[in-house]
Amino acid sequence: MAVALAVLLRPSGTPMTPLEARIVGYAESQVGYQTNPKNSYCNKFSAFWHAGGGGCPAGERDEEWCADFAAWAWEKAGIPVDYGYGPDQINGAAASFYQWGVAHHRWHPAGSGYVAKPGDVAVYGLVTGAAPSAVHVAIVTNDPPGQAGPDVVNGDGDRQGFSDVEAGTDELYAQALSKRSRLSGYVSPPPLPKHSRSAATS
Fold first, then answer.
1. pLDDT score at 196
2. Nearest CA to 136 among 78, 189, 187, 80?
């Protein structure tokens, strides 16, 4: 699947970088996708990473998958994602993005003054400690001035269905004003290696 790249703008009116536009383009291309069966976690994004359990239709795996979706969007955009279960690897746990961000100096706590960029991963409901946990992650598409939260694309969303890809605006909370799902911060993707391809294809 190739993604057509329009000239997308940041809130400031300046164009997105090619990497930002690719991440957003891949994430937005999946809006409307639903798990199969609809009331399950069987999904293609976990299968992409060979993660999750079986018992699903061909090409899908069973796992809560918001982080698998966000990692998929980064990988498809050309970012080499180190997917695994080490302390600084990304996996199906939402908190793995936070842990990776801290390890790689790409973590920006909410309230720090950082303005989210398209392609960042928003982390919600973070609890830090010896075993960090988080409620949800989503791909940032915009962070307009005056909003409490960013515009995002949610993998494994819960607003329109049990488990789907959906777009959201001004998302300070991942789950309908639930205090435990408030925005905790952002993880920015790494710069592409100089030898990396300029655009991702599948």
1. 56
2. 187
